[in-house]
Design a protein that fits this description.
11 helices, 4-stranded mixed β-sheet
């Protein structure tokens, strides 16, 4: 015989003949499998005590106080796991509220439907920002495409500065010398991950908070070490395969101080969505079963992925919606959806192997060149777009301002001063990987690592391999 308390009432149960009740497993089982007959009740895990810690901290069952946003984030932080028990008790404390008038620039930006223009500017006073992004390693397979074909010095923004792009870099097969060159040229280098794991559900469901630190911040450490990119310039991330990691991912971003994420897919809508901060509830449904954040993350921006429309279907990556279609027409049609309405930033997101098709390359080149006739269209990096949103300057003042300028002499002096100027010839490092059980090549202006850098050994120290 055993008793269970269900919804405030006590019920009497009996195991079937020949079975005994296992208190720990809470099931009836054969006697040989039950080793806890001396127990007369199940151990009750104490709910978090929200009163006996200082502000913004909660107590584990054992009395240890940890930051309150560590509770119910999907990652166990209390030794007794009590931070992930009875989460309904504390969830309401953290859930993001609907956008309200407390959200003010430059620190916060939101609107109920996500379509509001920053600073309440009229559309004709808003620069149309185009964001070209790539994800994956930078190496000999794509470097000439970036530097000689798409972003050569003859293609300029209205202020006479070269157009720019954002590169979400992962470690495997990345050339850190070429990455440093792109950064020296003014492009933005952002974070993807070290491993770019192919197990897509892992990023959304299985990766812990520690995994996110290891993968994303580990990649930041590698870029800082082997490409000399300042940590303060590594501002954004895109999660592999766009599989959002929910609270774990965004808590990691908040803890490390990342400025923005560029991974959340919004359902297709007209007009398109502007980027927003995550202090308040996201202004749209989450597409593709993404594990979007529900909590409030003040100061963290989301550069939303607005979908393309192609005939009667939609897609997120241009790679996925241009098969046997007029790509140039697709780009112009979707550009006009932004330019002729609220001028939300127009994102064009690629994986570089898509350019192996010559027709694709011709179409994007034609599109970029045709944008040069506009005096109110700018190809910028993601972080530059966020900075404009934080301090929205109308077009009438942009022409006489220092925003988005490109004083090469100042840039070169700065790079030289901090030893960040790329070298004339990189070190070609042949280093052994215990993970792959073979030698791997690395290109960097820095000294070669002792072993191939990887998770929890991002500097390639032999003692850690």
């Amino acid at each position: 015989m055993y008793f269970l308390c269900l919804e405030g009432e006590v019920f009497e149960f009996r195991c079937s003949s020949g079975l005994v009740f296992d208190v720990e497993k809470q099931i009836c089982d054969v006697s040989k499998n039950v080793e806890n007959c001396q127990l007369i009740s199940e151990e009750v895990i104490q709910k978090p005590n929200i009163f006996n810690c200082e502000d913004n901290y909660l107590s584990c069952k054992n009395g240890t106080c940890i930051p309150d946003d560590y509770f119910c984030d999907g990652s166990i932080d209390c030794i007794d796991s009590s931070d992930e028990i009875d989460c309904d008790l504390i969830k309401d404390k953290f859930l993001a509220k609907l956008c309200n008038e407390d959200c003010k620039l430059p620190g916060c930006f939101c609107s109920i439907d996500g379509t509001k223009i920053p600073g309440n500017l009229p559309p004709q006073e808003v620069p149309q920002i185009i964001l070209i992004t790539f994800e994956g390693p930078i190496n000999h397979d794509n470097f000439d495409l970036y530097t000689k074909t798409l972003f050569h010095q003859d293609i300029l923004n209205p202020n006479g500065c070269p157009i720019k792009a954002t590169f979400f870099v992962n470690h495997f097969n990345n050339n850190y010398y070429q990455t440093q060159l792109l950064w020296n040229y003014g492009h933005e280098i952002a974070l993807n991950s070290i491993t770019n794991k192919n197990s897509k559900n892992w990023w959304s469901n299985n990766a812990s908070l520690i995994d996110y630190f290891d993968e994303i911040i580990g990649q930041a450490n590698m870029l800082n070490k082997f490409s000399k990119i300042r940590a303060k310039n590594l501002l954004g991330m895109r999660v592999p395969h766009l599989k959002i990691g929910g609270e774990k991912q965004f808590l990691m971003m908040k803890e490390f101080g990342l400025l923005y994420d560029n991974s959340i897919i919004a359902p297709f809508q007209d007009p398109p969505l502007w980027p927003y901060t995550l202090q308040f509830k996201i202004p749209h449904n989450c597409s593709n079963n993404q594990n979007c954040p529900l909590r409030s993350y003040p100061g963290v921006w989301e550069i939303i992925l607005n979908k393309f429309i192609v005939n009667k279907t939609t897609c997120t990556y241009i790679n996925d919606c241009s098969k046997d279609l007029d790509l140039y027409k697709i780009l112009i049609t979707n550009f006009n959806r932004h330019y002729l309405t609220n001028r939300a930033p127009f994102g064009i997101h690629f994986k570089s192997d898509w350019f192996r098709n010559e027709n694709n390359l011709i179409a994007i080149q034609k599109f970029i060149e045709n944008m040069m006739v506009y005096q109110d269209v700018w190809f910028l990096t993601n972080s530059e777009a966020v900075e404009w949103i934080r301090n929205p300057l109308p077009l009438s003042k942009l022409k006489t301002s220092d925003v988005w300028n490109c004083d090469d002499d100042v840039d070169m002096e700065r790079l030289k001063k901090y030893s960040e100027m790329v070298c004339d010839k990189p070190n070609v490092c042949k280093v052994f990987s215990s993970i792959f059980q073979e030698e791997k090549l690395m290109y960097t202006c820095e000294d070669c690592p002792e072993v191939y850098p990887w998770i929890k050994n991002e500097f390639g120290k032999k003692d850690f391999d």
